What does this fold into?
Amino acid sequence: MVYPQQVVLNALKILEDRRNKAEQELQEKKKRIFESVEELGELSKEIAQVSLLAVKAVANGGTAEHVEQFKLKSLELQKKRDDLLKGNGIPKDYLKCRYYCEKCHDTGYLTTGLCDCLKKLLINESAKDLNMKVPLDKFSFDNFRLEFYDTNLVPGLKEPITPREQAKKNLDFCKEYASNFSKESPNLLLGGGTGLGKTHLSLAIVKEVLKKGYSVVYISAVQLVLNLEGHRFNSDEQNKYSIDSFLECDLLVIDDFGSEPISSFSVASVYNIINTRLMQQKQTIINTNLSGQRIVDQYEERVASRLLGEYYVLKFYGRDIRQIKHLQF
It folds into this structure.
């Protein structure tokens, strides 16, 4: 896994803070209990001293019998401590340090490699870093303006509808999607011309899903492909994001799909991400100006079949809203 240096530092800092908090809380508990039961404090010191002597004995090549004596002494003292705790109505594990992650004790590492808690933090911090330049505060469901959409029927549709009516349906669907987002939510394909609100609604979803504590990555198709090409051709890894950032986040939003340079590498890379996330049942939202036929023409059949066959499609109609707003102001 490759992550930018700052992402790694941020994740390790979170672990350090968790570890310090757990150890500080333990020290505060010890202070309180040792003040009320002085003998516990003395026993804890004895246990620590015996443990230290045992370590020194091993380091200095002490005999197995010698080391075993320290072990038995430590067990005897621990039994005495546990009985004293019980006699004072104190839980046996009261003096145990309550780490956020009991597997690695908030270090992030196991003998087998990275702990799952560090892996998750790297993904979350990577997602935050990727989203930092996205002005989420400007996009919400509340400021999605329906009045800019036309009220004339869209020509050529089997079921008559106006752009405004369709925009209202899309808005209501996206609100519900964000409100009930889970690992069972469908993947979405938001399709339609430029400036029709696809980016606005997808960012509004991102904003709400982030509030629920999920990891979200929002990235343009161009940035995504450039990043993946960087891993392939560029040896400088300090500012590149691991492909895990795109494969393992809870929600991946790819904006402006179809605007990226098309090559065998980009098509294969996009397919890998789309297919892997489908296989792992991780949610993806894709915004595109391409029609269904253009997706088929521009990408391999296996890409098009997954997008058009396994994504819930939201269609957007009408004139470029950005231009309409510009003309009015």
The first strand starts at residue 109 and ends at 110. The longest helix spans residues 5-36. The mean pLDDT is 86. Strands lie at 109-110, 113-114, 188-192, 216-220, 251-257, 283-288, 312-316.
